Every structure is written in structure tokens, then in C-alpha cells.
Amino acid sequence: MTDTEATTTGPPGAPPVGRRRSGHRRRPVTARVPPVVWLLLLVPLAIELFWVFWPAFNSFQLSFTRWYGVGPAEPIGLKNYQNLLHDPIFKTAFENNIIWAIAFGGLSVIIGLALALALNRPRRGVGVYRSAIYLPMVFALAVTGLFWRVLYQPDGPINTVLAAIGIDTGQHQWLADPNTALAAILIAALWRQAGYIMVLYLAGLKGCDPTLEEAAAVDGASWWQRFRFIVFPQLRNVNTVIFAVTVIDSLRTFDIVWAMTRGGPYNSTQLLSTYMYQVGFTLVNLGYGSALAVVIFLLAIAFIITYLVRATREE
């Protein structure tokens, strides 16, 4: 036998089971992948880099400049970010975004989960209820905003219904009042988002093991105990997805606010996204608008990474 060959043997007296060469090296993974696979991977990556990451990088660069869309950009360092700290409209938009993220995210999850638990069991007509609740998700946010704008008119259905049940609002202008405008938009957004969260939780509930809940019921566990200690822990992966979706949706909310109030009245419903649009595309201050876009991006990344790290550690 040569130095480069070896025989693999089993127990004493057993025949050799194979040969291998000690000098043989396995080919790297990259060499074993067919070229067509690399082509199918690299083409979408190139498109993603060109259409997403390159504009994002340019936006990050613009945030350190003063540029109004004409002529060369003037580098100003951190001046845009310093101006954000003294901008009262930015402070209002930032506070509204925090309120929106907590209320929109929290209430949509609670309502969606409650609807999923109520409609999870098969019964007559349950499919109709599911479809009706999910139906608002089919419409675009701008269409939803225009629809609710009609409902909130002084002589619209909402004031009419409230007056019919004995609540005289005096034909209150919900979207023209700074004290009620943000809450009115939030209700419209929840009406649309709750059905989407319900569908996600319904998919998660279908993956739960029903035998565990049945065994707990036989042992005398209450409905709340079964949900808290058996069902909800099995929804951990779904909760991670829903958290990411709601945080991203709350930070990029634009259409429904713009369709209903355009950030008014008196900037009381201004969000970071609507303020960024006004600064960047109405006032054409692209450097300052890019700084706002960077703030939105950092907030989204901070929320999501923090939650994912915590969820990973718990697992």
C-alpha cells in the first residue's frame, strides 16, 4: 500500500469497507455549486444593490449636505442633525411617531389576537366574518384615508350615529381639531391593520398543538391559564414577525395621514414620514429630508434588532 492510500477497517476480522487517499482534498463549496445557481443569485443581488442599497447610501451621504436639487451639494457636516434637535416640528413628529408606534402597534396586536382567538374554531359563518374583517386590508391606505375622511365630516355618519344614540357632538370637526385629529387617524389605521394581524395569528394558531391544550383542560386549567402557558408560548415566532411588521408599518406610515390631514391641523398629526416628504419634496430641501430619512431608518433598526436579540436569548 502506498503512503497516500489507507484502508478503512471495521472490527477485527471484518473485511475492509473502503479506501481513501490521505492526500485527497474535498473541493470547496463554491466549486461544487453550478454556475447557473450563482447567476440566479447574483442577478437579484445586483438589482437589489442598484435599486435599494445604492439610493440608501446616497441618501445617507446627502444628510451631511445642503442641497436643493440644483447644482452641486454643499457639505455641511452634522449641521442638518443639529438643526433637527432645535426643530419644533421635528419634535412634534417624533413624539407623534412614538405615540403612533405604541398605540398602533399595541392596539392592532391586541385586537388582531382577540379576533383570531374568537374566529379560530370552525363554526358556521366563520369564514364570512374572517373575510369581512380582512376586507379593509385589500384597499390602499390612501383610499382608506379618503373613506374615513368622509365619515369624519361634520355632517357625516359618525356624528349622525353619535347624535342618534344621545351623544351630541355639535357636528364636531374631528380632523380639524388638533386634540382629536391624531386619534381619529389612528382609529382608521387600526380598522385596516387589525384584519392583517388577525390573519397572521390565525396562521400561528393553526400550528399550535391542540392536544396540549386539551390535556390542560382535563387537568382543570382555566381558559386564561391555557392561553398564557400553552398557546401563547407557541406563538413566539409569530410574535417576532408581527412585532417587526408593526414597528416598520408604524414608522413608515404616510399614505393614510397624508390623505386625511396632510400633517395638519397646525402640524398636530405630523409624523416623521410626512414631515420628511414635506421637507424633501415640497420645500425641496433634500439634505434635511435625507437626515429625517436616516433618523427613521435608525429607529426601525434599533427597535427590530433589540427585539430580535432579546427573543434569540430567550430561546
| Total DSSP E strands | 4
Give the uncertain stretches in residue-range form. Answer: 1-8
Average pLDDT level: 85
**CATH domain topology:** MetI-like fold
Strand content: under 5%
Number of domains: 1
The helix-and-strand class reads: mainly alpha
Spatial shape = globular
Secondary-structure element series:
EEHHEEHHHHHHHHHHHH
CATH architecture: Orthogonal Bundle
Word description of this protein:
This is Sugar ABC transporter permease. Pfam families: BPD_transp_1. It is a single chain. With 315 residues, this protein is mainly α. It has a single domain, classed as MetI-like fold. Helices cover 66% and strands 4% of the residues. It contains 14 helices and four strands. The strands form two sheets. A two-stranded antiparallel sheet has the order 1-2. It is globular, with a radius of gyration of 28 Å. It starts with a strand and ends with a helix. The relative contact order is 0.12.
Q: What attributes characterize this protein structure?
A:
mainly alpha; 14 helices; MetI-like_sf; ABC_transporter_permease; transport; disordered N terminus
